Amino acid sequence: NAGVTQTPKFQVLKTGQSMTLQCAQDMNHNSMYWYRQDPGMGLRLIYYSASEGTTDKGEVPNGYNVSRLNKREFSLRLESAAPSQTSVYFCASTTPPRGGSTGELFFGEGSRLTVL
Amino acid sequence: KQEVTQIPAALSVPEGENLVLNCSFTDSAIYNLQWFRQDPGKGLTSLLLIQSSQREQTSGRLNASLDKSSGRSTLYIAASQPGDSATYLCAVDEGAGSYQLTFGKGTKLSVIP
């Protein structure tokens, strides 16, 4: 019963390096999300994909790109990492009910990224 | 812009106590409110989701209430146990296809044996 799986769990990068965080869900959910969690800032939405084939910016998209590869997979790419991107990144998924609400979110266990 | 506040930031109680965690939000036009639990080094787990038309939801020893007009929600934990120690976060959904939840910063709960 995997749920939402994120890889890698830990990563250390040097400033300017690039990397991709992978996320896959096995719950047949339509919508997927990338959040970052920083001390004192709470969770902030980076990008989301309401359905396969669509992506939209969240609150803090600068410095990131995303790809909704298929219904199961949603990746987050850092093209040129900066120390300000040191954070814990969470992927989440859901199938929103009718009516425009987000619905119950299911989260992965997080990817801890340090940029030196 | 919606703001969600959770006070206190940390709470320590002896085992067996009943306790209340608070969540307040600035814009009452919400679709629903969710309470999550986060264990150290782990992701968030959804505990309860209250629709805007509901007053409360219950799951086992947990009871969440919602008062939209006053912009408040509470999470009541009965007969607390050391296993309840975690950070509890609330998040509001403003609906209308926004696909965005606004999270509070959480209350870190420690239940002392």
Structural class of chain A: mainly beta
The N- to C-terminal Cα distance of chain B equals: 41 Å
Strand content of chain A: over 45%
Low-pLDDT runs of 5+ residues of chain B are none
What does the main sheet of chain A amount to? 7 strands, mixed
How do the SSEs of chain B run, as a string of H and E? EEEEEEEEEEE
Mean pLDDT of chain B: 93
Radius of gyration of chain B, taken over Cα atoms and rounded to an integer in Å: 14 Å
Task: Work out the helicity level of chain A.
Answer: under 10%
Sum up the overall morphology of chain A in one term. globular
List the uncertain runs of chain A: none
- Oligomer state of the chains in this structure: heterodimer
Helicity range of the residues of chain B?
A: under 10%
Q: What value does the Rg of chain A take, in angstroms?
A: 14 Å
How many individual β-strands of chain B?
A: 11
Q: Count the helices of chain B. How many?
A: 0
The helix count of chain A comes to 0
Largest interface: A-B, 28 and 25 residues
Task: Give an overview in words.
- Chain A is mostly beta strands and 116 residues long.
- In chain A, 0% of the residues lie in helices and 50% in strands.
- In chain A, the strands form 2 sheets. In chain A, strands 2, 4, 5, 6, 9, 10 and 11 form a 7-stranded mixed β-sheet that branches. A 4-stranded antiparallel β-sheet of chain A has the order 1-3-8-7, with no helix packed on it.
- Chain B is built from no helices and 11 strands.
- Chain B has strands at residues 4-5, 10-14, 19-25, 32-38, 44-51, 56-59, 62-67, 72-77, 86-93, 101-103, 107-112.
- In chain B, strands 2, 4, 5, 9, 10 and 11 form a 6-stranded mixed β-sheet that branches. In chain B, strands 1-3-8-7-6 form a 5-stranded antiparallel β-sheet, with no helix packed on it.
- Chain B is globular.
- Chain B starts with a strand and ends with a strand.
- Classes of the chains: A mainly beta (116), B mainly beta (113).
- At the A-B interface, strand 5 and strand 10 of A face strand 4, strand 5 and strand 9 of B.
